[in-house]
Amino acid sequence: MSFNEVYITNTSSFFPNDPVSNDEMEDYLGFINDAPSRSKAIVLRNNGIKRRFYALTKEGRSTHTNAQMTALAVKDLFKNNPGEIKNIELLSTGTSTPDQLMPSHGVMVHGWLPETGPLEVVSPSGVCCAGMHAFKYAYLATKAGDVQQAVATGSERFSVSLRSVNFEDEAKRLKQLVDDPYIGFEKEFLRWMLSDGSAAFLMSNKKNEHGISLKVEWMEGFSYANELEPCMYQGCEKLKDGSLQSYQDYTPEELMAQSILSIKQDVKLLSKNIVLYGGYGVKASLEKHGINSEEIDYFLPHMSSEFFREKIYQQLIANGNGIMYDKWFVNLSQVGNVGAASVYFMVDELFHSGKLKVGDKIFLLVPESGRFSYMYSLLTVC
């Protein structure tokens, strides 16, 4: 049985509103306990992010839903030929922050795309890897011949859950218990890390007749949840034994008083494992496909923070897969950490940069700290 080749023939990005500088963040997210954050400066100094985007006004009003942003990125793929949007046969949408538990994120995005016809919709869940899982589903469906043209997306709307109003009940409770109350670092840490936005890939079994395409050579994924406990989580609480207790097991009062619905991260667990295990996957995926790291022309690692740049660099060298910095292409400082959309933003910027030439090899690395899973892909410019 023969399989189709699969190409990314166009890419797009959508960012809500104007970029938000480091100094403006609390104007949008608000102050917890009516006081400036004590951890903000430390976190920003380490993560290297200079600006990000929020689907919020300074009054805390939402300007876009996740589904709306994703639909706008999809539409942008067809801005030069709007009628071709009807040719989409599959919409594969990845996010860790859907607007609701039900219906799925994918069908809500499709609802904002009345220009399309009936089509297959899929919504992988997860954290940062959700965007890559959406990409892989579209890749496999196109490769198998189920569809000729698909769209894969990655998107996030983190800002609404980062607003100070979500922590006020917990802050009040702490103030009654101690003289110097503060929200736990595992919760406040992420307020200075995350951003909003959406991006999309148009995928086909035929490459562009004019201009470049990106041939998808392969995609690989690895989970280490069999070895490691949860690290980044939301809608639950992490217990002393490392297990998670669902939001469904809390009363409505407890949900607010303990900020159960906020996004949290075990920073110590993250620092100890995220780079180490990601290195294992790089080595395994490259060896499986017979690729030497020296063959890679562009390395696009999704990093939550610049703090990890040197650690990733040294880990790759230690594993025998070193990639020199002049091959790295990262835009974290300008767009922020947008989870499942981050790798899409890097590919989109590079695709439209004018830098690529036929034959260039692009290696994608996406780590997910939810419970330590990773996705990798190799693209070739053609």
Secondary structure blueprint with pairings:
Blueprint: E1 7-14, E2 20-21, H1 25-29, H2 40-47, E3 51-52, H3 66-76, E4 90-95, H4 105-111, E5 120-122, H5 129-144, E6 149-156, H6 159-162, H7 168-177, H8 185-188, E7 197-204, E8 214-223, E9 232-234, E10 236-238, E11 244-246, H9 252-257, E12 263-265, H10 267-288, E13 298-301, H11 309-318, H12 332-335, H13 342-351, E14 361-368, E15 373-381
Parallel strand pairs: 4-5, 4-6, 13-14
Antiparallel strand pairs: 1-7, 1-8, 2-3, 6-7, 8-15, 9-12, 10-11, 14-15
Helix pairs in contact: 3-4, 10-11
Description of the structure:
This protein is an alpha+beta fold and 382 residues long. It has two domains: 7-211, Thiolase/Chalcone synthase (Peroxisomal Thiolase, Chain A, domain 1), CATH 3.40.47.10; 216-223 and 266-381, 3-Layer(aba) Sandwich (Peroxisomal Thiolase, Chain A, domain 1), CATH 3.40.47.10. The protein has helices spanning 25-29, 40-47, 66-76, 105-111, 129-144, 159-162, 168-177, 185-188, 252-257, 267-288, 309-318, 332-335, 342-351; strands spanning 7-14, 20-21, 51-52, 90-95, 120-122, 149-156, 197-204, 214-223, 232-234, 236-238, 244-246, 263-265, 298-301, 361-368, 373-381. The strands form four sheets. The protein has a nine-stranded mixed beta sheet with strand order 5-4-6-7-1-8-15-14-13, with helices on both faces. Strands 2-3 form a two-stranded antiparallel ribbon. A hairpin with a 5-residue loop joins strand 10 and strand 11 (244-246). Helix 3 (66-76) crosses helix 4 and helix 10 crosses helix 11. The longest helix has 22 residues, at 267-288. The relative contact order is 0.18. The model is unreliable at 174-183 (pLDDT under 50).
